[in-house]
Amino acid sequence: MTEQLRFVLSIAVRHLNGKRRQTLLVIAGVTIGSMVMILTLALGEGIVQDIKDKIIETSPYIVVTGEKLHPKETQLYRAPADSSIVYSMISRVKPSEKKQIKPYPETMALVASIPTIDGAAPFVFTRGVLRYHTMSRQGLIKGIIPSLESGIGNLKSNVVTGSLNELAFTKDGILLGSGMAKKLKAVYHTRINITGESGKVFQVRVVGTFTSGFGAVDDNTVYINLVLAQQLNNVPDDAVNGIGIHTTSLAVVNETSVQLAAMTGYRTETWEETNKNVISLFKRNNSITVFLVLFVFVVSGFGIANVLITIVLQKQHDIAIMKSMGVSRRSIESIFLIEGIILGVIGAVVGGIAGHVLTNVISSLPISYGESAVVRNDHIVTIQHAYFYVLTTAFSIIISAVSSLGPARRAARLNPVEILRG
Question: From CA 222, how far away is CA 226, in angstroms rounded?
Fold first, then answer.
């Protein structure tokens, strides 16, 4: 068995050496395919992980919403007592009922009793219009208690001008997203007007700007004090729209979310549930990109098949002599299958090394995503996993083997008598 394998390998290597230029071109094609696939996988994984990291860093792990799990029932109609059919109509939602946590201090006390929670911050969310001189922009206004908000996210470290502490002691202060500040052309300590959904207008003072890395957040979100947000949106002093939660670890998020919902009676959302559409969108785009990259391997497969068919045509006389000397049909097939696999393995190995180097180079370059990007960063984030290389090598070998089947079978079917007579 060893002698037969050695014989098959020696013939395969000799054939490839005889077509050195074509062999190198095919290896280059497989190398490019492997390199591009590894780079694509690393970029796709990096983008998704970058989004997840920014969500985890800037958002609560869990949000207790103002939506009740078991809303109050209101009877709209009941059948008359003398009716032969007993029926009634019940509404579980009051048209005028707002989704609020009220009284929220009691819910905060319940939250504090759960050992897996190490931070909680109530908030009021409303839409409004911000005006500075002739500039006006719509935005999301979030009312917070700064000292508590800093415990559930990285808002404090994301502040680039001013400070979160200044917002805490400035009752009419406002913290602008960097994109919003740029659009309004508002700077530190300028006064701007905000109009809430209730129609009330308040004048506030800019106490700083922040950058989260999310374009949509930085361009549209502002922070004010909770009390001011309650006044802006006609929310009672003891009510909020939600409570942001930070847990001791990400591993207990789902379990804690279920526990919170059961204890408080309000619907809860984890960070994954809140942002599932964004994450799934990027994952789907990555899958489509990888699928398109696979066609580079398919093209490489045609190159492998072309080289092997050429070898079969040029080596018909040699194949006939080997068959007349007793070399089996299976061995002839094995020679050309091994030739294809050799091309695939060499291309995958060289492509893997090139892909690793290229990925590291790209991730080290100071490249900005740009102001219009969904996620903003000062470099391209890439993540490499061992299975990327295993997957790329396996696919390269499979394509190479499949591409070799046709030429191998053609060589094995050659009739040595006809060839030697000719």
Answer: 12
CA angle 400, 406, 411 (to 5 degrees): 115
Whether the CB-CB separation of 128 and 194 falls below 8 Å is answered with yes
Count how many domains the chain has.
Answer: 2
Reply yes or no on whether the pLDDT at 94 is more than 70. no
The percentage of residues in the chain with a pLDDT greater than 70, rounded to a whole number, is 85
Q: What phi and psi values does residue 259 have, to the nearest 5 degrees?
A: -65, -40
Torsion angle of alpha carbons 266, 267, 270, 271, nearest 10°?
-100
Query: β-pairing, 221-225 with 135-144?
Result: parallel
Task: Write out the two tokens for 229.
Answer: 């947000």
**127, 135, 124: which is closest to 220 by C-alpha?**
127
Give the pLDDT score at 405.
80
Q: HSE on the CB side for 82, CA within 13 Å?
A: 0
Residue 147 domain-assigned (yes or no): yes
What is the chain's mean pLDDT, rounded? 81
DSSP 8-state secondary structure symbol assigned to residue 279: H
Q: Clarify whether residues 135 and 211 are in a common domain.
A: yes
Rounded to two decimals, the pTM is 0.69
408-417: average pLDDT: 71
Q: Choose the final residue of a domain: 271, 303, 330.
A: 271
Question: Which residues are bridge partners to 206 per DSSP?
Answer: 174
C-beta separation of 308 from 340 below 8 A = yes
Of 45, 37, 42, 30, the closest CA to residue 392 belongs to: 37
Query: Is 172 inside a domain boundary?
Result: yes
Domain-ending residue, one of 271, 298, 321: 271
Within a domain: residue 8?
yes
- Structural domain for 247, as ranges: 62-71+98-271
* Domain assignment present for 82: no
